[in-house]
Design goal:
- This protein is mainly alpha-helical.
- Helices cover 49% and strands 5% of the residues.
- It has a 3-stranded mixed sheet, with helices on both faces. Strands 4-5 form a two-stranded antiparallel ribbon.
- Strand 4 and strand 5 form a beta hairpin.
Length: 305
């Protein structure tokens, strides 16, 4: 959403949600807007703690447990067991070390682009660091849930590089910007989306999944592609996300898969089609810019949304 729409569209989305909670207060900065947004979240997802402090990393065990519990709240499209994949807490010493690594990555991320940093600070109020269970033969590097808007879960696995963590922050931020967009515009017919015949190819996991997961995968892949071309360092080792040329091909395949469904015009709302069309156009343009001497991919990424 950051690269395919720009910050002004994102801010408009937040403003519409925050407006009823502003009480006539003048909004001059994103920090002013954040107060109304967090008030919106408190009413929209009252089962979830809202972190209003300046530190996004959650260290309080009770708050961490409540945020993890929010991930599976009324999960209806839980195709990979996403709502149960977050494991028990790390031991304290290991948790401190992993939070330190994640904090370093976040500092690097926030220094990439001032506008991107402001959008992240507005959107994300909590980061939880916990290990992943292995479900259906898969573990995860982290993830996000529409039932816990504003919260990111990271495992900070020992094999991950700082560049991986930086890219994961962009990856997860994109999910949340889509969650916010969907609170402004309908994205799907959720009765039709649950049907087995209305599934398509995911650009990230390369498997058939529900359409909300596929749509998110296309947008995430596109944002990573554009981020690598514009502001992400492209000379660092990465093991989570594929080389850029593979992500372009997979995103375009996923686009064709989702838009060629017989029920596409019924299950996809106009806003969703607009977003997907922007992603496809961006990927077509990116083909001409990408060089093919990127690091080899190792491993698989698995996130929840």
């Amino acid at each position: 959403m950051f690269s395919i729409y720009g910050h002004e569209e994102i801010i408009r989305n937040f403003y519409r949600l925050a407006y009823p909670f502003l009480g006539g207060r003048e909004i001059r900065t994103s920090a002013d807007l954040r107060v109304g947004y967090l008030d919106f979240l408190a009413g929209h997802q009252p089962y979830m703690p809202i972190n209003r402090s300046d530190d996004v990393f959650i260290t309080d065990p009770a708050i961490e447990k409540a945020l993890v519990g929010a991930y599976g709240h009324k999960a209806s499209l839980n195709d990979l067991g996403q709502s149960e994949i977050i494991d028990e807490p790390y031991p304290d010493a290991i948790k401190r070390e992993k939070i330190a690594r994640a904090r370093h990555a976040l500092d690097e991320f926030l220094n990439l682009d001032d506008t991107l940093a402001a959008i992240f600070d507005l959107t994300i109020h909590s980061i939880v660091v916990r290990p992943s269970k292995r479900l259906q033969g898969r573990a995860s590097y982290g993830g996000s849930s529409s039932a816990a808007i504003g919260t990111i879960w990271l495992t900070v696995g020992s094999t991950l590089t700082t560049s991986d963590l930086v890219e994961m922050l962009l990856h997860e931020l994109t999910h949340h910007l889509l969650f916010i967009d969907e609170r402004n515009y309908p994205h799907f017919d959720y009765e039709l989306i649950t049907r087995e015949e209305n599934r398509a190819f995911s650009a990230i996991l390369n498997m058939i999944r529900p359409l909300d997961k596929v749509m998110h995968s296309i947008v995430v892949a596109t944002e990573l592609i554009l981020g690598r071309l514009r502001f992400l360092p492209d000379d660092k080792p990465r093991i989570v996300h594929p080389p850029t040329n593979k992500m372009i091909a997979d995103a375009m395949t996923a686009y064709e898969s989702i838009t060629s469904l017989d029920a596409a015009d019924l299950v996809l709302r106009p806003r969703t089609r607009e977003i997907l069309d922007r992603c496809f156009a961006a990927c077509q343009s990116a083909v001409l810019q990408v060089t093919y001497n990127e690091p080899r991919r190792i491993g698989n990424v698995d996130t929840i949304s």
